[in-house]
Structure formats: structure tokens, C-alpha cells
């Protein structure tokens, strides 16, 4: 999906058609409120998660979402999304692009309720799924597209899980921060809007080559 289509989808989720300026105003307002909401209501839901794996709520931009969707254009199959950032917009964008079933994973009950409420209000109830599940306990063996908007501290243990569970045909797209030990197949965007795509077959081939090289 391009940025214009995502503008329209974001407008649906917020109950009105927002232009570029409106979206910027919305993002600014959301950003200012995010910390207060996190501290008062959202943080308690993550107290069971180890401190170094906690990821704060930071809204992603429409352009970031457009770049992620661009790296998944033409693909099919089950698509999952791990992030506390713009959960609803990302999952609906995947669904509208034909990446189905589209599933969002969220551990915090407040963000989960908000995602489901926005989808119901926009008329997409029953078309996408939002599950309250810890990403570390989710089975990824049937997932062919994985969207990740998580902090660098999470990338190393997540890389090990993805390598162990995803099929060779899977593609992982990271927004905001790349996987430091992986070489991307392609990228889109620049700066904070950049997204990186990793094809698991290539990632595994590189991992095997590195292991064999150290053995020699």
C-alpha cells in the first residue's frame, strides 16, 4: 500500500478522513500523550517481562508503514505483526494488501482493547485478528511474513527464535531498527522511515557459511 492509501485507512481508524497535516498533528498529539499513558496504564502489563526486553509504546508514521508494505508487495500467506507501535494500522494494511490471515500480537490488555475497538469502529471486525500473546511463546512455524517494530535490545534473542521457527520461504521486515547480525535482501526509505527485508533462506545460508568459516 502507498502512503496515500494508508492516509485514507488511518482516517477510517480515527473516524475521519485525515490529510497529511492532520496526520502530523495526530502523531504529535499521540506522541505527547504516549508517555503519560504508558506510565499510568500500560506499564503494569509489562512488569512480568524482563526489563531488557520491554519495549515502550512509540507510534510509527504512515510513511514507515508504507515502506514496510512496499517490501511485502506481491507476497501471500499468514502475516504476523510484533510491536506496540501503530498495531491496528499495520495489521489492517497487511490485510488490505492480501496478506492473510493478518494477525497482531500484543501482550498489554489496554493496547489490545484499543486495537480491537478501532477495527470494529472502522468496519473490519472479523477480518483481522489481535491476540493477547507473548511473542516469545508464539509458534511461528506457519508464518510467511513477519513485521517487527521492536527496540535493538530485543533483536538478538528474536533473531534466534525466527531462525529456529520460520520456514525458508518466510520474509521478515524490520522497521525503525535493523537486525544487526543479518544482511538485508532489500531496504526501502531512509532515516527513521527506513525498513529492512530479510529472506530466511538467505539468512540461514549466511549463518551456515559463517559457522563453517569459523570451524575452518
From TrEMBL:
Transmembrane segments: 23-43
A single MF term (Gene Ontology): protein-lysine N-methyltransferase activity
Domain of life: Eukaryota
Keyword presence, Methyltransferase: yes
A GO biological process held by the record: methylation
Keyword line: Membrane, Methyltransferase, S-adenosyl-L-methionine, Transferase, Transmembrane, Transmembrane helix
GO cellular component: mitochondrion
Similarity section: Belongs to the ANT/ATPSC lysine N-methyltransferase family.
Protein known as: F173A methyltransferase
Native source organism of the sequence: Odontophorus gujanensis (marbled wood quail)
Organism placement in taxonomy: Eukaryota, Metazoa, Chordata, Craniata, Vertebrata
Amino acid at each position: 500500500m502507498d502512503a496515500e492509501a494508508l492516509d485514507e485507512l488511518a482516517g477510517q481508524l480515527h473516524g475521519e478522513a485525515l490529510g497529511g497535516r492532520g496526520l502530523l498533528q495526530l502523531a504529535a498529539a499521540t506522541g505527547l500523550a504516549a508517555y503519560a499513558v504508558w506510565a499510568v496504564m500500560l506499564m503494569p502489563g509489562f512488569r512480568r517481562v524482563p526489563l531488557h526486553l520491554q519495549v515502550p509504546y512509540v507510534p510509527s508514521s504512515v510513511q514507515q508503514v508504507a515502506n514496510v508494505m512496499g517490501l511485502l508487495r506481491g507476497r501471500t500467506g499468514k502475516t504476523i505483526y510484533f510491536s506496540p507501535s501503530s498495531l491496528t494500522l499495520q495489521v489492517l494494511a497487511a490485510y488490505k494488501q492480501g496478506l492473510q490471515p493478518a494477525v497482531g500480537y500484543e501482550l498489554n490488555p489496554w493496547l489490545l482493547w484499543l486495537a480491537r475497538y478501532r477495527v470494529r469502529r472502522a468496519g473490519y471486525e472479523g477480518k483481522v485478528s489481535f491476540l493477547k500473546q507473548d511473542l516469545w511463546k508464539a509458534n511461528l512455524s506457519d508464518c510467511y511474513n513477519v513485521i517487527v517494530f521492536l527496540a535493538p535490545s530485543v533483536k538478538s534473542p528474536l533473531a534466534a527464535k525466527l531462525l529456529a521457527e520460520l520456514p525458508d520461504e518466510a520474509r521478515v521486515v524490520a522497521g525503525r531498527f535493523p537486525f544487526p547480525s543479518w544482511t538485508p535482501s532489500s531496504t526501502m526509505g531512509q532515516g527513521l522511515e527506513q525498513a529492512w527485508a530479510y529472506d530466511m533462506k538467505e539468512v540461514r545460508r549466511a549463518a551456515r557459511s559463517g559457522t563453517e568459516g569459523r570451524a575452518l
